[in-house]
Amino acid sequence: TLLKLVEWLKDPLLVSKFQHFYGIQSLDYRKCRDKRNDKSDVKCNCTIVEKIDAKNILPKESKVGEELRPRSVDIAECSFCSTSDTASDNGDSSATESDRLKRSPEYVVRNKFWYYLFSFGAGLGYELFYASFFPIWFWNIDGAVGRRMVLLWVIIMYFGQALKDVIKWPRPASPPVIVLEPEYAMEYGMPSTHAMVGFALPFSMLIFTYHRYDVSFCFESRVTVIGVNFSIRCGVVFFLPLSGACSSADIVVGLLLSSTLLVVLLPLVDVIDQFHLKSLYSPLISVPTITLMAKFYPKSDRWSPARGDTCIIMGAGEGILLGSWLNYQLGIIRGPGLPPPFPIIWPGFNLLGLGLLRATIGIICIIAVRAIGKVLVFSIMCYIHKLNPKDPETKIRSSVEVPCKLIAYMAMGISITYLSPAIFRFLNIERITMFTEV
């Protein structure tokens, strides 16, 4: 039945097996191994949960989907103790039963190839990637496609992040799962926003580029483009169970939700983009809209970085669109002389050098704006609310965190599409076609 399928997909043992298969293995077995030759003690230090971690065996008394709690077992019963080459020599022998309940097991990476490959894929879903990918895309490739991708990115991420705090579906239990990214353990897991954006962003990039440019090139080039696109999606999605961040159910629901949103949003993106770009009054609608979206973001029963991350995404996205709006209203963006599809201009050494120079100068500008904006807005919020800026609790108060991240990252977005291109024009290193991308 559907319910059994959902329970099976939620099972943390699936994640644990995936981790074990790709070389992420627990180090919590040294005590047990050391007692292997101690015939006077019939008890070992293994538990049912650890036994699952070592051999991926579900105990008979456990049911799929139920929370597993450690239980001591006999040496004769423990299949881990009966083998001589399973445990690692580098385990922590000081861990206690209570310690294991409070934290994820220590681990060792047995297969560094898969670990680094999936880590790279996961990096495509974090702030560092977005803070470099979107600027470089706007400065060196195509602003019109970039605006549309940003619109989808903001809407899809808001829906996904908000649903996490509505559904309140916890991440896979640890143990047996080994958590590689503890900083995100406080977030709920359903749906997986990594999976959502990992599917939506490459797919939308392919669709928007295909309709804007003449891509009637050779079959090998098409296969390469599609292969790179598919690899990006797989890298993001497959790292999620490896990191212990999401269950299979979180990923499946994220992919289904992302696909559904794309079906609804793709026909509307052009209309929204053109209205925001060309209407003189569009900021009077968009800025209050994202402010209200941040204000009425679903409240969680505990603090997590989800709300702050959502404000970062909304602020950066609105800033990028505001910068493009300024360019159009000031006559900097004029529109192309010919309708699409446009021919692809393949870069030579000169264009590659200019692109690298723009990226270097622009990213320095972004870092400066982000640093100044965060400090300035934080100081103003602390002054308005009469809060101590040195108190760690101040930074996570919603009355401070929300405006700080919205305004600081909005300024950062404006610097991507307005301030940095102005510097490029001053230095005579701008990309000429950037000002025709309506």
From TrEMBL:
Keyword field: Endoplasmic reticulum, Hydrolase, Membrane, Transmembrane, Transmembrane helix
Membrane-spanning segments: 113-138, 188-211, 223-242, 249-268, 406-427
Subcellular location: Endoplasmic reticulum membrane
Membrane topology: Multi-pass membrane protein
Top-level taxon in the UniProt lineage: Eukaryota
UniProt GO molecular function: sphingosine-1-phosphate phosphatase activity
A GO CC annotation given for this chain: endoplasmic reticulum membrane
InterPro entries: PAP2/HPO_sf
Chief location bin: endoplasmic reticulum
PANTHER family cross-referenced by the UniProt entry: DIHYDROSPHINGOSINE 1-PHOSPHATE PHOSPHATASE LCB3-RELATED, SPHINGOSINE-1-PHOSPHATE PHOSPHOHYDROLASE
Protein name: Sphingosine-1-phosphate phosphatase 1-like protein
Species whose genome carries this gene: Dinothrombium tinctorium
